[in-house]
Write a structure and sequence with these properties.
Elements lengths: L1 E3 L2 H5 L9 E4 L3 H12 L5 E3 L5 H6 L6 E4 L4 H6 L3 H7 L1 E2 L2 E5 L5 E6 H5 L6 E4 H8 L4 E3 L4 E5 L5 E6 L5 E6 L2 E4 L6 H7 L6 E5 L6 E3 L9 E16 L6 E6 L4 E7 L2 E9 L6 H12 L5 H12 L4 E6 L1 E3 L3 E2 L2 E3 L5 E2 L7 H17 L13 H36 L4 H13 L2 H4 L1 H8 L6
């Protein structure tokens, strides 16, 4: 369970012979890493800017329904929370693709496709955090990084209601896992001003880069110029199936979790001012076939009280390791939700980083000694983590960006052509890069 704890209180448990590790951000990646290290006998310090656990979960409603692929299974098993994970999630067996009119185009048995690699399950973000914190999980809430020395050894932390209580600490490793719009990443990368971005070239959402090669940014991003409202609908009789409608100027995704169906109703940014009720009504009027689930999900959006609007942007850091500081999860690569792979890759990355950090456990702490070889070993471990994991994450990231080009179309002609393509393009082909990652998982220590 999540336990509120101070930074000093967490530091008291760190043994002199173990490295002092600071994890910034108690999201999926940060919590997974902290719990893995704790299970291996280490005592990382975990902080989050949220005031408490309720705010920590509520601040990121955009990610509150997840479909987790089998790359998370080794993490679930190592944390010994398999039973809790199965109870808190639902098995996803089928993917149902609808034409822009609502008619079912095809059904694919995703469960069978992924069965050789492990489970494919739907879970809410809040439930996943509960599962990952099945053992005690101390977190220092209301805590942020305000200064970070070059290389990451000296960290200034701000705490208190106004962030006016500052303290300076020495750490051997600083892991930045505080999300796609990471504040701490700016301190590590020298990020300043807007990041490089890529935007759709036209209304059919073909994405192209609009960057200045003479001024490379530490972070690149894609802006689909779309977003969408997210909310919950009541669970129905088919909780093993995901439904998606790739429409002409809209997108409707319906994702089962334990006890509910997560709903995402997407639209071009220019249509957001209509509001969820009017836009849901517009989508309903354009569908010629309306299943009970589609009807219920559109009703849920229309009747939701102030549903969250999720801008569909991503980000990718060009480098992860900076001395003794390293990026993890969305701070390293924030995903578009198009392939449903971001949370899975964040957990896989946490597992690989845990391997590298736990291998440092028998070395003298550089925060308490002047041993330059130990500092060099830490830097090497973080560089090795990046070399092992960044190509895998970026392959999945590229797949998400490619799918965005197909999903977010506005013209009826484009939607009709895409419907025809759906008849011949298998789900295996669409997810080929993801399947390749599952076929060759990272070696674990």
């Amino acid at each position: 369970m999540i336990i509120a704890a101070t930074v000093d209180g967490q530091l008291k448990d760190v043994r002199p012979e173990e490295p002092r590790v600071l994890i910034v951000g108690a999201g999926i990646a940060g919590i997974a890493l902290a719990q893995l290290l704790r299970g291996r006998g280490m005592h990382p310090v975990l902080i989050d800017r949220s005031a408490d656990s309720g705010r920590m979960i509520g601040d990121n409603r955009a990610g509150y329904m997840l479909a987790l692929m089998p790359m998370v299974d080794p993490i679930i098993d190592e944390l010994d929370c398999r039973e809790a994970y199965l109870e808190a999630s639902v098995g996803i067996d089928r993917y149902i693709a609808h034409a822009h009119t609502g008619r079912v185009l095809r059904q694919d048995h995703l469960g069978d496709l992924l069965a050789d690699y492990g489970d494919y399950r739907g879970i809410s973000r809040a439930a996943l955090l509960d599962v990952l914190t099945d053992g005690d999980c101390p977190i220092a809430f209301g805590t942020t990084v305000t200064e970070l020395s070059e290389g990451g050894a000296t960290v200034t932390l701000a705490q208190g209601d106004q962030g006016d209580q500052e303290s300076e600490h020495e750490f051997d490793v600083v892991v930045i896992a505080d999300g796609m719009n990471s504040r701490t990443r700016e301190l590590a990368t020298g990020e300043a001003g807007p990041t490089e971005s890529a935007k759709p070239a036209s209304t059919d959402s073909r994405i192209h880069a609009t960057t200045d090669p003479g001024r490379p940014s530490p972070v690149s991003s894609v802006d689909t110029t779309w977003g969408g409202w997210v909310c919950w609908a009541e669970a129905d009789d088919d909780q093993s199936a995901v439904d998606e409608i790739w429409g002409d100027g809209f997108f409707l995704g319906m994702y089962p979790v334990e006890g509910a169906v997560g709903v995402f109703l997407g639209c071009p940014d220019t249509r957001q001012p209509l509001g969820p009720r009017r836009f849901a009504g517009e989508v309903r009027s354009r569908l010629t076939e309306l299943t009970p689930r589609i009807d219920a999900c559109l009703t849920a959006v229309a009747e939701a009280e102030s549903p969250f609007f999720w801008p569909l942007r991503d980000s990718r850091a060009r480098r992860w390791s900076h001395g003794r500081t390293v990026l993890l999860g969305d701070a390293a690569a924030g995903f578009l939700p198009t392939a449903g792979i971001g949370a899975g890759m964040a957990m896989e990355s946490a597992g690989v980083l845990a391997d590298e950090l736990s291998a440092l456990g028998d070395r003298p702490s550089t925060a308490s000694s002047a041993d330059s070889s130990a500092a060099s070993g830490t830097v090497t471990a973080l560089e090795r983590f990046e070399a092992r994991q960044r190509p895998r994450v970026e392959a999945a990231h590229d797949n998400s960006r490619s799918l965005a080009r197909l999903m977010f179309g506005r013209s009826r002609l484009f939607a009709f052509a895409r419907d025809q393509a759906f008849r011949v393009i298998s789900i295996r082909s669409a997810l080929k890069p993801i399947l390749q990652l599952l076929e060759s998982p990272p070696e674990r220590m």
